[in-house]
Amino acid sequence: MTSRPPRGDRSTRSHILDAAERMVQSRGFNGFSYADVAAALAISKPALHYHFPSKAELGLALVRRYEQRFFEALSTVGDRDAPARLEHYASLYAGVLREQRMCLCGMLAAEYRTLSEPMQQSVVHFFERNEAWLSEVLTLGQRERTLVFTGSTHEKARMIISCLEGAMLVARLYGDLDMFQTTAASLLAGLAPAPADETADTAG
């Protein structure tokens, strides 16, 4: 009979989440099984089921933890101006790609129809929260005149997310982090106001 890990064993739970997160970010949610996680951690499948009775529960825990960590990282931006905040935002994507991984929720979005309803809702919540954060930054940029764009802040926020998620996919295809960084830099440069002398020449 397999002994169950103690209920307060947070270390085992964290290790399970870490291993599963790596697998989702490299293979997708449907690309691994509990057997894969158990083998990677050298634990029994019953021990794995003890912490996460179903794969759907494991997936939900992954999304919630990823969102928490993502926004904790965003919170370190402090009171920098809008362009700097956007650079910081893009750098989080680059950091994930540098580890040869993909955005966890981006990978799950590709498998959206196969996910449990709670997981679907959590993935949508992650992106909606991203849109809200970016919309606030874009509003700040308009107010301080450090960002220029057409359309609503909501539309622009969605465009930024879509471009970065797509840039990750293409960069991963070619194994080229510089490709992602070039795309991200071009995206942000497109939001910068024209230099004063250029504005004056256009006006003249």
Short characterization:
With about 200 residues, this protein is mainly alpha-helical. The protein has 10 helices and no strands.
What does this 3D model show about the protein?
- Helix 1 packs across helix 2 (34-41) and helix 5 runs parallel beside helix 8.
- By secondary structure, this protein is mostly helical.
- The chain is 73% helix and 0% strand.
- It is elongated and about 65 Å long.
- The protein has a domain at 59-193: Tetracycline Repressor, domain 2 (Orthogonal Bundle), CATH 1.10.357.
- The protein contains ten helices and no strands.
Query: What is the name of the CATH superfamily of the domain at 59-193?
Result: Tetracycline Repressor, domain 2
Radius of gyration: 20 Å
State the end-to-end distance.
Answer: 84 Å
* CATH fold assignment of the domain at 59-193: Tetracycline Repressor, domain 2
Order of helices and strands: HHHHHHHHHH
- Tell me how many strands there are: 0
Give the strand content: under 5%
CATH architecture grouping of the domain at 59-193:
Orthogonal Bundle
Overall morphology: elongated
User: Portion of residues in helices?
Assistant: over 70%
Structural class: mainly alpha
> What's the total helix number?
10
| Main CATH class of the domain at 59-193 | Mainly Alpha
Can you summarize the main beta sheet?
A: none
